[in-house]
């Protein structure tokens, strides 16, 4: 497993999302899609042509969109509320809190083009705050799949989960990392590569970069464990504690601010359960300059080579402590 | 049930609400008194609900968007059999399920959690739309405050309700002319509401919202388009010194005022 390089073919995870959504729509007449004039960007054209009456487009009105989603669930339907993650979470955060999470409405929130997927459009369209905003809300699992296989599995899981869910998807191409037939489990990290020197943890578009970083480290004789941790809440405490126990250091990376996201969630576990050297990679608390998502991730030190270097400096801290 | 019976129930609800505000030392009594007749008409005449089956799929939906008058809803729900009447004593007490804004996961009969304003109407639009999509026959009612209509989310919902053709949705605006800190007209005066709702594609009925003989037919009226009832009410209705006084939005009567209010409400029971 460790010798196999990460595959080169890239997938837009929206395709996996809508493929499952359309199948669910055929199986279950209660499945509805709700969107904010985002039929195209959410790739809901196929769903719309198959089930025109079940595509609810509220127009450019995100607060109403989320409230309508809660009402549809109250009326016995299974709504997938889809919109650009920056607007779905930012514009309607209070609706997500009160109407969805606090009311425990059976609504699936699907944040499309999260992170810096809208790179050049600028920080208004970046959604690098959404983990922080959503993971503080009770009742709301927060999930960022790493590839098309996990996306499909997570959508399938969400449809059967009896409560609200926030699925954070991207449009940036990623290679498939998980095996075909993978079954999603909320709050369970996936071991993608084992090692004893350091643990690299990521989700979404960063997991494959972690795998590449681990390959670089391996060429230097450093064996890194790689965990894909799609579920930001509830965080996989057991996997974090095991990572500290087995490898002694944790490096995280995410397409999100370094404040309040996956790294912070892991740090909360490390501080409370298993203190160890740790570093969080992400957007360093600034509004990003102009550039594509891939450019910006590299710019912020998350190119695989830079991740490998960060891992090595963490190893130095670890041995300095020892 | 005749208008006279409903008026008697409304006075009993007002009295219990007043007592609970006095006991708890908190509440939003002005808006509770303005909305009590509407709540009474809904729960004792209009709504098709079954207290023993609060989640019955065919129940009519009622959303209290002005969630800060939760106490009036609790008293009404208790009187209608959704929760024990003696539980009103726990209002705002530690660990009571009757907090200052209604919780649908704890209190039977509550459909969605409200509190922040401008939330109930979008959710009600979703409920009404779900009925359309599923072929269900329930009707959805939502009660907002007039000051609450300043929230932009309401107007997103109003335009979408017209777009979706939701003739199974009734919005009641409790138009008591006062918000928390001042008169509506001195803050952000959305009145008159009727012409604005008509412009958005709704049918509108204007009533005296403290007059049972006008409330019931308006609630039972079915229209071709979404229906808005502009209910002209009095803040603090039923208690003379509170009526139309902005400072009674969430003030608590002192012992002397309490006795006067008790006497006023009791003499009409």
Automatic annotation (TrEMBL), chain A:
Transketolase-like pyrimidine-binding domain: residues covered: 11-176
SMART domains: Transket_pyr (SM00861)
Keywords assigned by UniProt, alphabetized: Thiamine pyrophosphate
UniProt keyword NAD, yes or no: no
InterPro entries in the cross-refs: PDH/Transketolase, THDP-binding, Transketo_C/PFOR_II, Transketolase-like_Pyr-bd, Transketolase_C
Cofactor(s) the protein needs: thiamine diphosphate
Family statement: Belongs to the transketolase family.
Protein name stated in the entry: Transketolase family protein
